[in-house]
Hints:
The chain is mainly alpha-helical. The chain has one domain (about 55-390).
Amino acid sequence: MTNSLRPHGYQRTPLPQESAPTPPSPRADEPGQQATTPPAASPAGQKPKQRDAFFDNAKYLAIVLVAMAHSWEPLTDSSRTAEALYMVVYTFHMPAFIVISGYFSRSFDLRPDRLKRLITGIAVPYVIFEVAYTLFKRWADDDPTYDFSLLDPWYLTWFLISLFVWRLTTPIWKLVRWPIPLALAIATLSAVSPDIGDDLDMQRLLQFLPFFILGLCMKPEHFQMIRRRSVRIASVPIFACALVFAYWAAPRMSSAWFYHRDSVQELGAPPWTGPVMTLALFGCSVVLVSCFFAWVPRRHMWFTVLGAGTLYGYLLHGFLAKGSRFWGWFDDYEWLHKPLGEIAVTIIAATVVTALCTPPVQRAFRFAMEPKMAWAFRKDPAEQARSRTTTAA
């Protein structure tokens, strides 16, 4: 979901209907943000729309996989099995988040209230955590010269700035005739363009773009198709084949391909591999994302409520994930590289990120993740007029 650690409610409800949809909050799709804003006044006798447990379940399970993959990264040099699991998970965990992001961005436009939520829900947390991660790296890695730059996202913050750009361009993608082929063409050109540079982590922003556009083009019936019993059954041998292939490829292929952060030239590959790998990885990711969605529970589970806090778990667990490397935990404790140690690391990672998604943590860090910032914006004249009308009535 992320920069690698390498050098580098909740009742079962149907999916939103396509006809006359209730515009979702621009923060609904981010890993961890609340899917609903304070509900507006509803017509008498009409209940406010409830969240779909399926998407909260999908976000929670994906963030657990993210934390587990980060815990496996230091183990991949000594364990071929860990490397294979790492490669499989990296094939679909971030694409799954980004597809959901695109799906819930379908109704985004440049309306003032949505732009405000875009700023407070994405841009402001990006700035806050870019500063926090910079200070943390200076202290934990004993690197006081590390420079702060909003143009150079560090570690996990690349996703926030990418989501900001993707969503801001949503009205354009809704206008073009063939958005997915166009996004794939842009991703391919990015993969063979080493001169793009590192500003805004542009390689990753452009190479992951097709997944956002795919979600933007999806409709509720597509998710219904994915969740059919036949797809669930087929996903078992598909995942098994993916694991077998990854086990074979682990010593032969660099996992840096799955980060989408470099051009093929920077990976030491010839330019012709750019289109091939872009299309191949996109196809593999779409298949595994579909298999993942097929097994996500549709009903309310004990962890469904945590789906509203996945952005908290995503950003906060980064301090522990990076700290474990800065402080040499995996070097100091050899038993972590044994099978039982690998299992223990996996359980600890899943437990920690689960705790970081809980409501108490959300309340404690809401000032950074979901600041209201009413002082920073002009009041909407139309909203003021409605308030005066309601008061007079």
